[in-house]
From TrEMBL:
Annotated protein name in UniProt: RNA-directed DNA polymerase, eukaryota
Gene Ontology molecular function: RNA-directed DNA polymerase activity
Biased composition range(s): Basic and acidic residues: 150-159
Region of interest called Disordered, as start-end residue ranges on this chain: 150-179
Keywords: Nucleotidyltransferase, RNA-directed DNA polymerase, Transferase
Biased composition, class Acidic residues, residue ranges: 169-179
């Protein structure tokens, strides 16, 4: 996208969370980018780079086990994910796998997530096990090589949305075959017996079931 806006010699680096660093070859190019209305609309904010910067946010994948079938809904997993932060997405579902669910969350939780805790569904206790798997990372589209000056100037921006065309690059070989869907559960969950379309994903549960996470 930057290339199409006339910034031909650009390098983008993912810094963690929703932060990216943009490296440019001249100070005047940096100033042009900082004042570009279109570019500014892609980011929540733009700042000059400083050496002490560390992203406090992390976007990580978490495995969740132990959720009962009648509470198997997006609302349940969103509530569990809210223990550590904000849910970003859910792993694409499988008709024959209800043993675990993998979710992606944005969190400020500094330590590795590994917890066992109780949830209450219809006044009954269930023990849920959660384990952090790996950090989500961002890949950028390649642009034509342009010779860089030695006095590169850097800026960084906090991304409000992920650049179209980028891929989820998980540091786990299994994840290469796993997709993430924005409409995994839709607005409701159907009972497996009521699914009419062959090949359509089938789910147990009711999104209105009250789930307490303790």
């Amino acid at each position: 996208l930057l290339f199409h806006e006339g910034f031909l010699s650009v390098r983008t680096v993912y810094l963690g969370g929703l932060w990216v660093m943009i490296e440019l070859n001249f100070p005047k190019t940096k100033n042009k980018l900082m004042n570009h209305v279109g570019v500014a609309s892609w980011f929540k904010s733009l700042h000059n780079v400083h050496a002490e910067f560390v992203s406090k946010e992390r976007i990580v994948w978490i495995d969740i086990e132990g959720v009962p079938l009648h509470a198997w809904s997006r609302a349940t997993f969103a509530k569990i994910g809210s223990k550590w932060g904000e849910i970003v997405d859910l792993e694409d579902g499988s008709n024959d796998l209800f043993t675990r669910k993998r979710i992606c969350i944005k969190t400020n939780h500094a330590s590795n997530i590994l917890e066992t805790f109780k949830i209450i569904v219809k006044r009954k206790d269930f023990w849920v096990r959660t384990k952090e798997l790996f950090v989500w990372s961002l890949m950028f589209k390649e642009i034509p090589e342009v010779e860089h000056s030695s006095d590169d100037v850097s800026t960084k921006g906090e991304a409000d949305n992920i650049v179209e065309g980028s891929d989820l690059n998980n540091d786990d070989e299994e994840s290469d075959n796993e997709a993430v869907s924005d409409t995994y559960f839709g607005d409701y969950v159907v009972n497996v017996d009521n699914a009419e379309v062959q090949g359509q994903e089938k789910y147990f549960g009711n999104p209105t079931v009250n789930v307490e996470v303790s």
